[in-house]
């Protein structure tokens, strides 16, 4: 079966008052049916921009080049009417910050049905059924957002995302601002739904510990590019790119007391997309950088010892 | 909607919630002395306007009605507010005038608010060329001298109370369009609007479902502030002789008082009552509008 989502050489450039700002600089990725791809990276690395661009939800002045094929159709060449029909029906978004994503003056059930109405099949309300599915109970449809807790709101957003039976679920940091217990419940719920319905999922987060639970494959982004991609567990246990190493090392390993006493961080700030360093964009912060890093910008290439793994670093896979 | 039967039906709950919201507005209005007094004044004028036929017969307004009465008689038991220059009862004209003035004030406001809201919503949400054109039109109506425009329109369109109201409405929507647009600009950046766009909602669906409910309180408060302007404009047009000759408005009463020389003759009962009525209604609407604005927009509280 062909990929649900296939992104080729995607560049996204924002037009700002200070000129063009490259947010995504040449990303390739694909998601197979039923697969979950975790996309990790720190704030400002372009991961949310990438996610929103998949449904062309970026400001109209933004330049997008490359191709985004969702179920075989190119999102970037669609006419507005086609695009509206494709949104939610083929890929839907579980947004972060449910607090603000729900309209405070409309009932939950009405907001869920809104998605169905937008796609012209409004004869029956499915809100009750969907709310049951996410474990909230059909009666919650009559409530206003402020009458629900944070976790309940996030559940209702998941119900909303399922309203039009999409192929792909784009989860944009769905567990930020939730406490860990609720976070675990939401992740479990997403996992169950994904399995029951055979959905593909793009799971965006800055929290790698979340991905170890959910993702089949993980891609790590830095400065608008994917710098390492591979099978989830293998990548999280043994990352090869120095940046991914720093990311994984910043989480203590449960059961290994020594790791708690020496959590490692990463010095420096993410690069300014207006003014990227020469060569590898990570070299100013890299602890193992060599002279070559200042001039050579390595593209993703297969790591020698792992077929599924690709890394963009001069030190890895050099033959 | 669902198979579970709630102990109270959704409709009951809706009503309970609406009652609660109304109770809150009422409570805050009670504590706002100026707002409360102005509400009472407005209700009083409304009551008089509605019961005009009970207070004075409509035939008293006809020119023939004053044939056997003394001209410009001072207030007496028979004529509580005296008579005008052709012997008609001033009180009767004042009572019937409240109908015309209030009707034109409110109807003109409806026209202005509808035009202003639609222009503001579209200009605020649909950016680009459409917004530029709408804003240019809006600016035209903002800067064009308003009275000459209203006079020209009144002459062209005719002088019935309805057309007068439409004329006043057409000339006074520009401010509220600006106000609505400013609010829409902030609302359309909300995350739930982006969510609606992501799920494939069209422009109109987003405007009416998500943006309009957010600006409604502002529109209501703004409307109560347009009414006094409309009433004043109606009075001005009538005073200048561009009003409806057949319906007695307060402005027309003032016009009659001025042209009959009642001021030099010291016939205060002819010009003072309509003037005071206009001031009272305009002031009451303004204070009530400000009070509503404070209640609907908590940011203004305490100012």
Keyword list:
heterodimer, A: 319 residues, alpha/beta, Rossmann fold, four-stranded antiparallel sheet, 11 helices, 12 strands, B: 303 residues, mainly alpha, MetI-like fold, 12 helices
Give a topology summary.
The complex is a heterodimer of chains A (319) and B (303).
Chain A: E1 5-16, E2 19-31, E3 36-40, H1 47-53, E4 63-70, E5 73-74, H2 80-86, E6 91-94, H3 98-101, H4 108-118, H5 127-133, H6 150-161, E7 168-172, H7 180-197, E8 200-205, H8 208-214, E9 217-222, E10 225-231, H9 232-237, H10 242-249, H11 257-261, E11 301-303, E12 306-311
Parallel strand pairs in A: 3-8, 3-9, 6-7, 7-8
Antiparallel strand pairs in A: 1-2, 1-4, 4-5, 9-10, 10-12, 11-12
Chain B: H1 10-31, H2 33-50, H3 52-55, H4 90-125, H5 129-143, H6 146-157, H7 161-171, H8 174-187, H9 191-198, H10 203-239, H11 250-259, H12 268-296
Helix pairs in contact in B: 2-4, 2-12, 4-5, 4-7, 4-8, 4-10, 5-8, 6-7, 8-10, 9-10, 10-11, 10-12, 11-12
Summarize this, please?
The complex is a heterodimer of chains A (319) and B (303). With 319 residues, chain A is of the alpha/beta class. Helix content of chain A is 29%, strand content 24%.
What does this structure look like?
The complex is a heterodimer of chains A (319) and B (303). Chain A has helices at residues 47-53, 80-86, 98-101, 108-118, 127-133, 150-161, 180-197, 208-214, 232-237, 242-249, 257-261; strands spanning 5-16, 19-31, 36-40, 63-70, 73-74, 91-94, 168-172, 200-205, 217-222, 225-231, 301-303, 306-311. With 319 residues, chain A is α/β, with parallel strands linked by helices. Chain A has a domain at 5-90 and 166-278: Rossmann fold (3-Layer(aba) Sandwich), CATH 3.40.50. The longest helix of chain B has 37 residues, at 203-239. Chain B has helices at 10-31, 33-50, 52-55, 90-125, 129-143, 146-157, 161-171, 174-187, 191-198, 203-239, 250-259, 268-296. In chain B, helix 5 (129-143) runs antiparallel to helix 8 (174-187), helix 8 (174-187) runs antiparallel to helix 10 and helix 9 (191-198) crosses helix 10. Chain B has a single domain, classed as MetI-like (MetI-like fold, Orthogonal Bundle), CATH 1.10.3720.10. By secondary structure, chain B is an all-alpha fold. The relative contact order of chain B is 0.14. The radius of gyration of chain B is 23 Å and the shape is globular. The chains are: A alpha/beta (319), B mainly alpha (303). The interface between A and B is medium-sized, with 36 and 24 residues.
């Amino acid at each position: 079966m062909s990929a649900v989502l296939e992104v080729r050489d995607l560049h996204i450039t924002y037009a700002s008052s200070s000129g063009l700002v490259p947010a995504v600089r040449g990303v390739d990725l694909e998601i197979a049916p039923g697969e979950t791809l975790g996309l990790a990276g720190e704030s400002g690395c372009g991961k949310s921009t990438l996610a929103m661009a998949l449904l062309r939800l970026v400001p109209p002045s933004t330049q997008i080049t490359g191709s985004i094929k969702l179920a075989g159709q190119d999102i970037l060449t669609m006419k507005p009417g086609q695009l509206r029909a494709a949104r939610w029906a083929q890929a839907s978004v579980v947004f972060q910050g449910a607090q603000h994503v729900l309209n405070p003056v409309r009932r939950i059930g009405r907001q869920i049905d809104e998605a169905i109405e937008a796609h012209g099949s409004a004869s029956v309300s499915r809100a009750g059924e969907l709310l049951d599915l996410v474990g909230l109970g059909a009666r919650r449809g009559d409530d206003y957002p402020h009458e629900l807790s944070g976790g309940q709101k996030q559940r209702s957003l998941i119900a909303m995302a399922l309203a039009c039976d999409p192929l792909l679920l784009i989860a944009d940091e769905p567990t930020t601002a939730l406490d860990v217990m609720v976070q675990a419940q939401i992740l479990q719920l997403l996992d169950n739904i994904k399995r029951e319905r055979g959905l593909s999922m793009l799971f965006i987060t800055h929290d790698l510990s979340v991905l170890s639970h959910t993702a089949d494959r993980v891609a790590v982004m830095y400065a608008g590019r994917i710098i390492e991609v591979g099978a989830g567990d293998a990548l999280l246990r043994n990352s090869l790119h120095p940046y991914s190493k720093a990311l994984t090392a910043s989480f203590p390993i449960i059961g290994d007391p020594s790791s708690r006493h020496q959590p490692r961080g990463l010095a420096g700030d993410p690069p300014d997309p207006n003014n990227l360093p020469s060569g590898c964009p990570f070299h100013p912060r890299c602890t193992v950088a060599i002279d070559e890093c200042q001039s050579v910008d390595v593209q993703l290439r297969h790591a020698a010892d792992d077929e599924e793994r690709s890394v963009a670093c001069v030190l890895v896979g050099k033959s | 909607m669902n198979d579970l039967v709630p102990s109270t039906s959704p409709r009951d709950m809706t009503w309970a919630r609406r009652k609660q919201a109304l109770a809150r507005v009422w409570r805050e209005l009670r504590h706002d002395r100026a707002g409360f007094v102005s509400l009472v004044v407005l209700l009083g004028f409304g009551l008089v306007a509605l019961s005009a036929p009970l207070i004075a017969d409509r035939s008293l307004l006809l020119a023939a009605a004053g044939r056997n009465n003394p001209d410009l008689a001072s207030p007496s038991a028979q004529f509580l507010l005296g008579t005008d220059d052709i012997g008609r009862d001033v009180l009767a004209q004042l009572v019937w005038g409240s109908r015309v003035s209030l009707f034109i004030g409110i109807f003109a406001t409806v026209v202005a608010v509808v035009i202003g809201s639609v222009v503001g919503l579209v200009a605020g949400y649909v950016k680009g060329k459409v917004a530029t054109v709408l804003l240019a039109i809006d600016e035209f109506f903002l800067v064009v001298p308003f009275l000459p425009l209203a006079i020209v329109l009144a002459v062209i369109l005719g002088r019935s109370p309805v057309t007068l109201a439409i004329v006043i409405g057409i000339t006074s929507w520009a401010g509220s369009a600006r106000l609505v647009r400013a609010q829409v600009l902030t609302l359309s950046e909300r995350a739930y609007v982006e969510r609606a766009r992501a799920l494939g909602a069209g422009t109109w669906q987003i405007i009416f479902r998500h943006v309009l409910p957010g600006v409604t309180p502002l529109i209501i408060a703004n409307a109560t502030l347009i009414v006094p302007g409309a009433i004043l404009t109606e009075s001005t047009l009538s005073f200048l002789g561009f009003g409806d000759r057949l319906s007695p408005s307060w402005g027309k009463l003032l016009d009659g008082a001025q042209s009959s020389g009642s001021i030099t003759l010291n016939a205060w009962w002819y010009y003072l009552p309509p003037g005071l009525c206009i001031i009272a209604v305009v002031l009451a609407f303004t204070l009530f509008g400000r009070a509503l604005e404070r209640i609907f927009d908590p940011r203004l509280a305490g100012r």
